[in-house]
Amino acid sequence: MDQAAPPAVQAEGVVKRFGPTVALDGVKLTVRPGESHALVGRNGAGKSTLVGVLTGLHKADAGTVTFGGEPAPAFGDTTAWQSRVACVYQKSMVVPDLTVAENLFLNRFEENARWISWGRLRKRAERLLAAYGVEVDPNTRARDLAVEQRQFVEIARALSFGARLIVLDEPTAQLDARGIARLFDKLRELQGQGVAFLFISHHLQEVYELCTAVTVYRDARHVLTAPVTEVAKEDLVAAMTGERAAGATAWHAAGETAPDATAEPVLTTEQLSLPGRFEPLDLQVRPGEVLGLAGAAASGNTAVGEVLAGMRKAGGGTVRVRGRAVRAGSVPDALAAGIGYIPEDRHDQGLVPERSVAENATLTVADQLGPWGTVLPSRTRQFARSMIASLDIKTQGPEQPVSGLSGGNQQKVVVGRALARDPSVLVAVRPTAGVDVKSKDALLGVVRRVADAGNAAVVVSDELDDLRVCDRVLALFHGRVVATFDSGWTDGELVAAMEGVGERE
Ligand SMILES: Nc1ncnc2c1ncn2[C@@H]1O[C@H](COP(=O)(O)OP(=O)(O)OP(=O)(O)O)[C@@H](O)[C@H]1O
């Protein structure tokens, strides 16, 4: 890392307000060339807002930003911002139907050229990818890339515009262990070439693995910047939360009060299948039980969750809740049968952004909030208030549109909504994705309590922390259950099962 060179980015005294909300209150951040710098904080601390300011998306109300010692471009001068900084989001920013080469040179086909030379374009793409050591065929359609390959292409594209600072917003969210290893290798290699990274993540172990420095924001303020080697994990969490943790994660399988194996199951599936995604599956989840469906991206575990919730129609087989058959592919019937669902992607399936927290939280309970199908605003608000309190949602109040909530707080609204009907079976797909360490504990506690109250829960995830709450875990690989674990599993054996180690492919 070059200490003498001007910082890749330096922000000082940055203030940003959204109406009455102060999202950033005079914060600072310095990232040096060749550094991988983590920015951490609880949901709503201001991380995404800072990224918005640093990438020219938000105009700060006060403060200064410099790149390589030069003042940031004027607000709105998109081309100039592109040559300073780029953000690789969880959501793909490439056009899926175009090839890698076309995506790399999108909107900048050769100036003055009257036609596009596809051969030249491909050659230029090859050279560009080779320059950053990215092994991807420029003729591949973007949709066929693995997630980390798509990220490499986005990074190479940003670097080719001249940017020397790349923001990575939860980049590992959709990657399996091997993908993460490949991504981190590539980032280290580029760091060696002087590229700086700002890494936003709720996975603190990844911060320790990848980053050299860490900055913590809490409630819109800067609280700490230090080399990662000088901050222990407990101190980092304490800086984020403003309090000392009470101890290790409280949430774990029921243990001694293990679910009664003779009780009638709450959820039963028989030969449930979805061709191409998962093979016939017989499940029995008993009262008091949390069942984990562990598996990496293509394992089929998410598809099982979607089928249970009625989001997808099964190819065959049945689902029953307390003996009642659930109509295949019907969300209303799944809800009526008592299945509550926390989807993985709150953007596509979860929320109506312009509606309020209260309305979003009660979308599935409208029929319970007033007599004869009327929705009483007072009851909606009352329900929303209790949800805001119990899930610790950071919001101005029940009337605030969810579009004004931070990502993690939006996820909590999705969770609150799934709980609103007091479900017999809670199906939660990666319920703690994007949620801060403290809220994670609270959410897993909520899942545990659903089961402890005599209902059942199914947790679909590849996150070991999510799976610790389970009494039993089935590991899926390529659509098949390859292993079953009671609550005493070790990280190594579960990860191995999820990766299909020992399986013949
Ligand atoms: N467009 C907006 N309108 C109103 N308020 C907003 C808007 N964007 C963010 N906020 C508010 O600004 C604060 C900071 O939000 P921000 O998204 O920066 O948090 P974050 O640290 O990125 O959280 P997370 O970890 O959940 O992604 C929050 O209180 C949020 O509600």
Structure description:
The protein contains 17 helices and 20 strands. The two termini are 43 Å apart. The chain has 505 residues and is α/β, with parallel strands linked by helices. 48% of the residues are buried. Strands 6-7-8-3-9-10 form a six-stranded mixed sheet, with helices on both faces. It has a six-stranded mixed sheet with strand order 16-17-18-13-19-20, with helices on both faces. Strand 11 and strand 12 form a beta hairpin. The longest helix is centred in the middle third of the chain and has 16 residues, at 177-192. The chain folds into two domains: 9-241, P-loop containing nucleotide triphosphate hydrolases (Rossmann fold, 3-Layer(aba) Sandwich), CATH 3.40.50; 262-498, P-loop containing nucleotide triphosphate hydrolases (Rossmann fold, 3-Layer(aba) Sandwich), CATH 3.40.50.300. It is globular and about 70 Å long.
